[in-house]
From TrEMBL:
The active site is at 468 (proton acceptor). Residues 175-291 form the Acyl-CoA oxidase/dehydrogenase middle domain. Its main location: other. Belongs to the acyl-CoA oxidase family. It comes from the Eukaryota. Signal peptide: none annotated. Its cofactor is FAD. This is Acyl-coenzyme A oxidase. FAD binds at residues 179, 218. Gene3D superfamilies: Butyryl-CoA Dehydrogenase, subunit A, domain 2, Butyryl-CoA Dehydrogenase, subunit A, domain 3. It is found in: Peroxisome.
Length: 626
């Protein structure tokens, strides 16, 4: 990679970026870089790597295929529980609840058990459930990661004793009520209050103004019986000022009667209405008027209030308590990053399988050409396939780290998982969202038929970029450890006249680029580890090829930046381009084996155009031809 470097030795962002990639790239690309790409193209364009598909599939499969198959089998055996293409919002919500009830009570899959004891297995279930219907995946996530996770992680033993079984068996459907109309990303700005009443030993939960109405709350509009409500804990007469604001805490608030399902007094619930996607999830808005809850309903792991109104915490400041509280909720973000990759796998599989059978145009008097043989088509889909592999290994590693963190509570690991989950969630979900449109377009008009799935995948997945932390906000969480010299200097320069917040804003685009570049190099490092650990030589060779394409494509995507600072000379830029085209061609040759290794059977992908045999006939039958 040294050959790429021009004389310009400035300590620039581009330089750091390419150095990060090349650091990992050198061992893997040595062979490639020793040859001129055109030379390679001439001598071996026709050569195809032979891949042992079974070995590759086995390597990709992971430990939890059995439980995923149990999910698929359950829904295959219960066609009445499969989501039809056309369904009203209200019916979709009921169906989604019935799907979840069926899974838990009939198929015997108990997600809460795995949330607590085997998070990696929980995420595997979430992946499988999301491929049945993404609304079901999110509904399950609201019940078990958010409502269940908040009680288990922010509460203490008394809360587990009281709520675990009901959350587990769905007797207690619940919500996670954090977001308000005026405050989403800025959780510290929440305004809902919970004031301690020492006379009755209760908290009084209030919505002080309409900006504090809880908004977008999953499970609230129809099914929820309880909500974990995030509110400012206020203690009257705690200090000389009268009422003390102890910061944002979480409280369990019953919202509907257990028997009649009527909304409880003091609580007003409205439906957030029809959404762009995920209409199987019943998002609602909640307003509280002097709702009284027992003192015990404070989820008191990080801060408690005694009978006489004294506040105690093992953590010294509001900020530390807030950080610890949000830190415990990182599992939702891990789940989204992981699930986003499975959406990308489904979309890439449909687009590539179809592109391998679709033929258009060709040389005179010869058979038409398969569209995946067009260079432009390879350019659209092969780097995407490579990225899917890269994200698979990176998010699998994230899930493993998260599972270790839950066991060990090791502080370094906690910080690592926090930063990694923020970066990966933001990077992967943004990439998947863009790729879904590319996949639709790659399938031409037939990609636009709802039955071929791109529309619902795109609409349902789109919000992954916003919830569990808006992507732009999340990418700013490398704040202390990853600042590069250049941006540090800029921040320092602007801090004096603009203050810290203003300086941060002045450098924001720079910082976001740095965050992306960092996460790209982390993804690549995990991919390289996965290539090196692959035991089967043919599968390893295939993975190496895909990894090379991933790395080179990332450099090519930012070639403008490298050229701007003269880090990559024009002839080198051209060589990079040629080489990535060549690698795309090589990956195309094994594209079938690579998508087969995702192990997504036809009943999971479902799109007729992606069926592994008789795609056209299945499609014609779908519209009514015999
Ligand atoms: C379908 C759906 C389901 C949801 N489910 C739940 C739920 O169950 N429980 C719950 O509590 N919440 C839920 N939410 C809310 C979700 O978590 C919030 O939408 C999310 O946190 C973002 O907040 P916001 O919508 O207020 O956006 P904002 O924070 O207002 O962001 C708006 C825009 O401003 C930008 N922006 C904001 N701050 C910055 C900054 N510092 N720097 C640069 N740019 C910035 C963002 O990038 C974004 O583009 C749900 C939302 C939806 C749509």
């Amino acid at each position: 990679m040294q050959t790429l470097k021009s004389n310009n030795e400035s300590n620039s962002e581009a330089e750091r970026r390419i150095e990060r990639l090349s650091l990992h790239l050198n061992p893997i690309l040595n062979l490639t870089w020793n040859h001129h790409p055109l030379e390679m193209e001439n001598c071996s364009r026709g050569k195809k790597l032979i891949v042992d598909a079974n070995s590759l599939t086995g390597y990709m499969r992971g430990k939890y295929r059995d439980i995923q198959e149990k999910v698929f089998d359950y829904f295959n055996a219960n066609p009445q529980l499969q989501t039809p293409l056309e369904i009203s919002k209200d019916n979709h919500r009921e169906l989604c609840m019935n799907q979840l009830l069926g899974l838990v009570r009939e198929a015997g899959i108990r997600p809460l058990h795995y949330v607590v004891h085997d998070p990696a297995k929980y995420f595997a279930i979430l992946e499988a459930v999301g491929s049945v219907d993404m609304s079901l995946g999110i509904k399950m996530g609201v019940q078990y990661s958010l409502w269940g996770g908040s009680v288990i992680n922010l509460g203490t033993q008394k809360h587990k004793d009281k709520y675990y079984d009901g959350m587990d068996n769905l007797d207690f459907p619940g919500c996670f009520a954090m977001t308000e109309l005026h405050h989403g990303s800025n959780v510290q700005g929440l305004q809902t209050v919970a004031t301690f009443d020492p006379i009755t030993d209760e908290f009084i939960v209030d919505t002080p103004n309409d900006g504090a109405i809880k908004w977008w709350i999953g499970n609230a509009a129809v099914h929820g019986k309880f909500a974990t409500v995030f509110a400012r804990l206020k203690l009257p007469n705690y200090d000389a000022k009268g009422i003390s604001d102890m910061g944002v805490h979480a409280f369990i608030v019953p919202i509907r009667d257990m028997k009649t399902h009527q909304t409880l007094p003091g609580i007003e619930i409205h439906d957030c209405g029809h959404k762009v996607g995920l209409n199987g999830v019943d998002n609602g808005a909640l307003r509280f008027r002097s709702v009284r809850i027992p003192r015990d309903n404070l989820l008191n792991r990080f801060g408690d209030v005694s009978r006489d109104g004294q506040y105690t915490s093992t953590l010294p400041s509001v900020n530390k308590r807030f950080g610890a509280t949000l830190g415990e909720l990182v599992g939702g973000r891990v789940g989204l990053a992981y699930s986003s990759v499975s959406v990308l796998k489904v979309a890439a599989t449909i687009a590539i399988r179809y592109s391998l059978i679709r033929q258009q145009f060709g040389p005179p008097n010869q058979p038409e050409v398969t569209i995946l043989d067009y260079q432009s088509h390879q350019h659209k889909l092969m780097p995407m396939l490579a990225s899917t592999y890269a994200f698979h290994f990176a998010t699998t590693n994230l899930v493993e780290k998260y599972a270790q963190m839950k066991k060990s509570h090791d502080e370094e690991l906690v910080a690592d998982v926090h930063a990694l989950s923020a970066g990966l969630k933001a990077y992967v979900t943004s990439y998947t969202a863009k790729s879904l449109s590319i996949c639709r377009e790659a399938c031409g008009g037939h990609g636009y038929a709802a039955v071929n799935r791109f529309g619902s995948l795109r609409n349902d997945h789109d919000i992954f970029q916003t919830f569990e932390g808006d992507n732009t906000v999340l990418l700013q969480q490398y704040r202390t450890s990853r600042l590069l010299h250049s941006v540090a200097v800029r921040l320092q320069k602007h801090s004096k006249p603009l203050g810290q917040f203003g300086a941060w804003n002045r450098c924001l685009n720079h910082l976001l680029t740095l965050a992306e570049s960092h996460i790209e190099s982390v993804i690549l490092a995990k991919f390289i580890e996965a290539v090196q650990s692959c035991p089967d030589p043919s599968a390893q060779a295939a993975l190496k090829l895909v990894c090379d394409l991933y790395a080179l494509d990332r450099i090519w995507n930012d070639i403008g930046t490298y050229r701007n600072v003269d880090y990559v000379a024009p002839n080198k830029a051209k060589a990079i381009h040629k080489l990535s085209e060549y690698l795309s061609f090589q990956v195309r040759n094994i594209a079938k084996e690579l998508v087969d290794a995702f192990d997504l059977p036809d009943h999971v992908t479902r799109a007729p155009i992606a069926k592994q045999s008789g795609a056209y006939s299945q499609y014609t039958q779908y519209v009514g031809f015999e």
